[in-house]
Amino acid sequence: MQLKTVEITNIRAVDYLKFEAGALTIIRAHNGCGKTSVMDGIKAVFEGGHDPTLLRQGTKKGVVLLTMDDGTTVEKSITPKGSTVTVKTADGQVVPAPATFVAQLAKGFAFDPLAFISAPKAERAKYIANAMPINVSKQDILSCVELKPMSQFVESHLNDVTTATTFDLPALTVARKAIYDERAATTKQRKIQEGGIDALRKTLPGNWKPEGDPQEIVADANEKLSTANTVLANLKRQRDERVVNLDKANTADLAEVTRWEADEIDKIRLASTAKRETIGSAYKEVRDAAYHANHDQIEAAQDEVTAATSNLNAASETAKGWAVQAQTAATITKYQQDMRNTSKLEDVLTATLEAMDTAKQKAMEQTPIPEIMTIDGEVYYRQPGLDEPVPFDSVNTQHQWMLALKIASLGAGSLGLMCVDGSESIVGENFEKFCTACVESGFQVIATRADEAYKQIDVESMAAIEEAAQ
Questions:
Q1: Which of 3, 121, 243, 401 is buried most deeply by CB count within 10 Å?
Q2: Are residues 458 and 35 in contact, defined by beta-carbon separation less than 8 angstroms?
Q3: CB-based contacts of 427: which residues, under 8 Å, 6+ apart?
Q4: Is the pLDDT of residue 467 over 70?
Q5: pLDDT tens, residue by residue, 241-268
Q6: Which of 18, 17, 79, 74 is nearest to 53 (CA)?
Q7: d(CA 398, CA 437)
Q8: Is there a contact between 67 and 19 (Cβ–Cβ < 8 Å)?
Q9: Average pLDDT of the chain to the nearest whole number
């Protein structure tokens, strides 16, 4: 069934207009002459409801009458109080349930092929989601994981992201973006970890490898210092014991002299003084000799203590250096483990994204237009002969229109009618390509086009293009 004629009475700016509808019908006029009123009248038949603003000002009734090529008529009458739709067969029989009949002819005109062509990439993807609804289950995604041992990790991650078990295209896009963003953050974290590991490695000497335990190095140095101190203390003790014994003997001698002096003080005062001097001189000589008897040994021992102390200090510094480097090496080991965990998560996220994309692609291959697909919020076209799909914007203009009309046709119903308002935005060769695409699409297209040269509505059926296409 196809639309044959359109007759409009008292609809907004149109008082009366009748025209035949071909494969492509162009309605031209100056702005404000009623082009959009024609489109609104046709759409009102299929969109249903009551819109009193459609009624031409100052009139009591507006009518849109559509006649099909088999003689069936669909009439919508509009008054200020309400609207009615009447469907009659070619022999004048009234069809019951007219709303149901009209709904079978066309599902409305929410999808505009012109808007699809000019829309931003993200909006096009939304059009596709509305025109070709798909559903992808979690199990569909898991079945697309290439490495099966990875499936349990992908499933676990999907469960962390969402509790949903099935996704339509918008929900799948949202879930994929969440996983994509997480993978981007994970990749950034891994690169930071790699940078940290490289920076730590540069602080180590070339071919660095720990030689012994830093604590054992310090303990050995402490033991050597303790031994040296013990030897020095023993030597000093022996020296001091000799001096003390001499001091005691000298004190005893002096006491004896004192007793002797008391007995013979008068006789030997002078002699005692001389003897004191002799004893003192002898004592000093003997004491000095005793003090210096092991001087060389003491100095040697002192040198050992000094050397041992220096060795301890050096060992302590070495041990500190080894401890810092050992800690650096341990930190590198920990960072490497963290980076391996991060890389594993990155692999899981990548596998999840790839599985989601594959599942979505399989689902879209089951849609009425399998050559159309969306990737990362952008519409792509699977061009025959090419392994990879190409962005919609890379498709030639005429084929873009063919695809847009194909997508629009999903809501065209059995009548196969589409309305495009504002085709003046398509200029030059692109308009010719648009016209050709409309004719070749196999659907009826009614398009309006603002043209300053037309002071009133002019309707043209593109018969020449139809014949050229045939």
A1: 401
A2: no
A3: none
A4: no
A5: 888 888 888 888 888 878 877 777 777 6
A6: 79
A7: 6
A8: no
A9: 85
Q: What is the dihedral angle through the alpha carbons of 41, 42, 48, 54, rounded to the nearest 10 degrees? A: 0
CA 46 to chain centre: 44
10 Å Cβ neighbour count for 70?
10
pLDDT tens by residue, 164-192: 888 887 788 888 888 999 999 999 999 99
User: How much is the average pLDDT of 190-209?
Assistant: 83
Partnered with residue 14 across adjacent β-strands are: 11
Cα–Cα distance for residue pair 405/394, rounded to 1 Å: 17
How far apart are the C-alpha atoms of 218 and 225, rounded to whole Å? 11
Q: Are 28 and 458 in contact (CB under 8 A)?
A: yes
Closest C-alpha among 340, 371, 375, 383 to residue 358? 375
* 461, 22 Cβ separation under 8 angstroms: yes
Q: How far apart are the first and last CA of the chain?
A: 20
Global pTM?
Answer: 0.54
- The DSSP code sequence of 376-402 is TTEEEE--TT-SS-EEGGGS-HHHHHH
Q: Are 190 and 346 in contact (CB under 8 A)?
A: yes
Bridge pairing between strands 136-137 and 166-167:
antiparallel
Q: What is the DSSP letter of 94?
A: B
- Predicted confidence at residue 111, as pLDDT, reads 57
DSSP state of 93: P
What's phi and psi for 25, nearest 5 deg? -120, 125
Q: Measured in whole angstroms, how far is the alpha carbon of residue 148 from the centre of its chain?
A: 24
Alpha carbon distance 388, 455 (integer Å)? 49
Q: Is pLDDT of 201 > 90?
A: no
pLDDT, position 465: 44
**Dist. CA 10–CA 55, nearest whole Å:** 6
- In order, the DSSP letters of 48-84 are -S--GGGBPTT-S-EEEEEEETTS-EEEEEE-SS-EE
User: From CA 23, how far away is CA 83, in angstroms rounded?
Assistant: 29
pLDDT of residue 26: 93
- In sequence order, the 6+-apart residues with CB closer than 8 A to the CB of 321 are none
Tokens of 191: 């690169």
